[in-house]
Amino acid sequence: MLLGVVIYMDQQLKNHQYIVSRLGGRVELSKCLYTVNIGSNDYINNYYALQGYNTSTMYTPEQYATVLINQYYQQMKALYNTGARKIGIFTLGELGCTPEEIDRYGNGTSCAENINTAVLVFNDKLESMVDQLNQDYSDAMFLSVDLSGVSLTIDQGFTEYSKSCCAINSTDGMCDNGVTPCVDRSTYIFYDNFHTTEAVNYLYGESAYTQLQPLITDVLLPSVMGRQVIE
Question: What's the whole-model pTM score?
């Protein structure tokens, strides 16, 4: 499977600043809702990658989380300086429970609790970062969004928790080309070895929207059925 180029956060911010500069003030960014969900790849494809990076030998999980959060703060500061005033920041989920990490570190049967523990350290620091951002930039609102409370059980129709819906390419954990996926995706948590299914994302979306309500005031939302929606 061909993967697209990963545009890292600093470059995304530069791209955004460039677009904003070309708009010449025609968009009220203070009324836009920004959501930021980053950090998963810093663990799955860096700190806990089997090869290619040495961060796990350079830092303890505590130190690594501090490095990430310090960079994260500067990125949110840059977003604020561009004009953003309503920013929802997502905590990380249990990355150790993805099929890929279960295969790598959980003997194929159980979650990699060392990864989940490291993620908890990151999330604790992220909550403190959000508090600090709200103190430093009182004319903006930063809000953490935590999806860990979303119930993904048999009551919601899920029966497969550690297997992917599709046949996996062993080189990257993505779906093999040309292979038919599972018949009923609504019973699976994961589509491939990393990404959740539409059924899961629907529940995540509902929870996120509810948690983001304090930010959704005079926010221009995407059009629904051809009409713009303003709340």
Answer: 0.88
